[in-house]
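My main concern about presentation is that the manuscript never shows what a single data entry looks like. The format is easy to grasp once an entry is in front of the reader. For illustration, here is how one protein appears when written out as sequence plus structure tokens:
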Amino acid sequence: MGIIKAGDIIHIFVKNTKPPKEKFIIVLGIDGSNVSVLTVFINSKINTNVYRTQYQQDLCYKIKQSDYPFLTYDSYIDLNAPFERSKNDLEWLVNNRPDAKKGSLKSEHLEDCIRLIHTSRAIKGKTCKKFGFFN
């Protein structure tokens, strides 16, 4: 078993944001071959210029700073744009910078996020199956 698991919260520099910056990501799932992870961002607020519809805003799951003390504010898990990453890359990062791993989502929050990701148009059924979201 690797050092990365579903629910892990990791602070990394990401290039797939505008502008590139340090962000918290959450590992939602690990593929069956143990090569890739599906991640989402934690944002401090819902950007209504990007997420204009209620549907998109409903895919931003609120978490409280009191549950996750490394957060500065109550924040939102953005389930609109899941991103596949290399599991090896994240494990290398955590091995070489242990403080990057900030904690894990509470199990009920992870379950809620997986339930919500099923309603997202941004993720296909085959991706849900690949990352173990179907039992």
In short: Residues 107-117 form the longest helix (11 residues). The chain has four helices and six strands.
